[in-house]
Design brief:
The protein is mainly alpha-helical and 91 residues long. The protein has one domain. The longest helix is centred in the middle third of the chain and has 26 residues. It is built from five helices and no strands.
């Protein structure tokens, strides 16, 4: 079942990245990663008209994580381990 729907590499990447931030930041990170992969999958479905394709979830997880690292570098107020900036955005 794991190799059919989600790859082992995807699960390993999720487990490793789960220790990289606080719970709320990790949930936001997952939502953004899954949204990017869903948009990519829909674009492939409608533009290429391919019925069976795989979505490189681990690639999207690492790309989104890279964006969050860039946000951390260029925004001194953002911290992966503190939820204050995320709570301010959504309140």
């Amino acid at each position: 079942m794991i190799d059919k729907y989600i790859g082992k590499g995807d699960l390993i990447t999720l487990m490793i990245l789960s220790f990289s931030s606080s719970c709320n930041n990790f949930i936001l990170f997952l939502l953004l990663s899954f949204l990017l992969s869903l948009i990519h999958g829909l674009v492939l479905l409608f533009l290429i008209k391919k019925k069976h394709f795989t979505i490189p979830l681990a690639g999207y997880l690492t790309a989104t994580y890279s964006l969050m690292i860039a946000l951390d570098i260029f925004s001194p107020d953002f911290d992966f381990y503190i939820d204050d900036c995320i709570l301010v955005i959504f309140s």
